[in-house]
Amino acid sequence: MAEVQSSAPIEESAALSGLGGRLRRLRRVRRRTLRHVADVAGVSESFLSQVERGRANPSISSLTRIAAALDVSVHALFAPDRRSPSHIVRAGTAPALEFGEGARKWLLTPEPLQELEIIVCEFAVGGHSGERPYVHGDAEETCIVLAGTVEVQIGEEQMELREGDAVHYRSSQPHRTANVGDTDARVLYAMTPPTF
User: Fold this and answer.
1) pLDDT tens figures, 160-179
2) What residues pair up with 183 in beta bridges, in sequence order?
3) What's the DSSP call for residue 2?
4) What's the distance, Cα to Cα, between the start and end of the chain in Å?
5) Most CB atoms closer than 10 Å: which of 17, 158, 174, 177?
6) Domains (ranges, CATH) in the chain?
7) Spacing of C-alpha 26 from chain mean position
8) What are phi and psi of 50, to 5 degrees?
């Protein structure tokens, strides 16, 4: 049961620590053991424990499987404590979630999500969404490059996209994004219906 693990920085990210704490609370509320959730999600028990303690960054693929094992959607992990939905998401207020390697994302559509989900992601140089392509639901998804150069893999096809380029696909197709440029990259994803 191999799982790519990447350690969090010594000064733990608040987002990563918050994610781990929420996962642990959800698991306990649902009275599920680490072993049960790890087995259902297809990850090792030690990896799941590290995620819950904020010491490992889950890939999008593993986070999606962990959320499914807890019967929650991934987008619910962004800000489950949000008290009242608003029509406005102010700059700098959207909660960040680290994922993959050298990547983080923000949910820009206010909850509760209805028919559309918009996420903006930043990829450091060499950063990516995960070691392997992943799937999530079966939505229409569009990836738009706002800055930098990324390689998007959809199935077996790999394409290089630059600022202003976009690609459209089904989220049920295995896909992966990686920064192949020499500057940070910023990418916007729009999905309908929401799948995270």
Assistant:
1) 999 999 999 999 999 999 99
2) none
3) -
4) 24
5) 177
6) 14-72 (1.10.260.40), 96-192 (2.60.120.10)
7) 18
8) -65, -40
